[in-house]
Amino acid sequence: MKYILIATVGTLLLYLVYRSYRYVNLAEGLDKKIENGAIILDVRTAEEYATGHIDGSINISLGEIRKRYIELDPSKTYITTCSHGLRSVKAENLLKERGFKNVYNGGAWADLEKIIKKK
């Protein structure tokens, strides 16, 4: 019982940190980057992408990004997204390691889609 309580509290804290991170990203102008033509890079699998995605987004799964990053233009701005935000952080870091300067984590695609639709 004790471990279940600890796991529940840990999950809740992780969720709160994630939500706070999303607000910080928006404060830093993620919505403006989208307005200015940032490319949305969805790093979920093709199967996940097929169940729903942001119109106009590019789908390169995290598992393929190490090979396929050469298809992307390092001079462009990219916003990575996935189902919850964890894979998109990994993709953001991977692209930055490969010389991409303008890459930002957009978190969960459903949240990012809401931001886009507000505009």
Walk me through what this model shows.
- The chain has 119 residues and is an alpha/beta fold.
- It has a single domain (29-118), classed as Oxidized Rhodanese, domain 1.
- It has six helices and four strands, in the order H-H-E-H-E-H-E-H-E-H.
- A four-stranded parallel β-sheet has the order 2-1-3-4.
- It starts with a helix and ends with a helix.
- The model has no long low-confidence stretch (mean pLDDT 88).
Summarize the SSE layout with pairings.
Blueprint: H1 2-27, H2 30-35, E1 39-42, H3 46-50, E2 58-59, H4 62-68, E3 78-82, H5 86-97, E4 103-108, H6 109-118
Parallel strand pairs: 1-2, 1-3, 3-4
What composes the largest sheet?
A: 4 strands, parallel
**Tally of helical runs:** 6
Give, in spatial order, the strands making up the sheet with the most strands.
2-1-3-4
Percentage of residues in strands: 5-15%
Give helix and strand order, one letter per element, not per position: HHEHEHEHEH
Regarding CATH, which class? Alpha Beta
Structural class by sheet pairing and helices = alpha/beta
Low-confidence stretches: none
Give the overall silhouette: globular
The percent of residues in helical segments reads: 55-70%
Gap between N and C termini: 46 Å
Domain Rhodanese: 34-114
Organism: Chitinophaga silvatica
Protein name: Rhodanese-like domain-containing protein
InterPro entries: GlpE_sulfurtransferase, Rhodanese-like_dom, Rhodanese-like_dom_sf
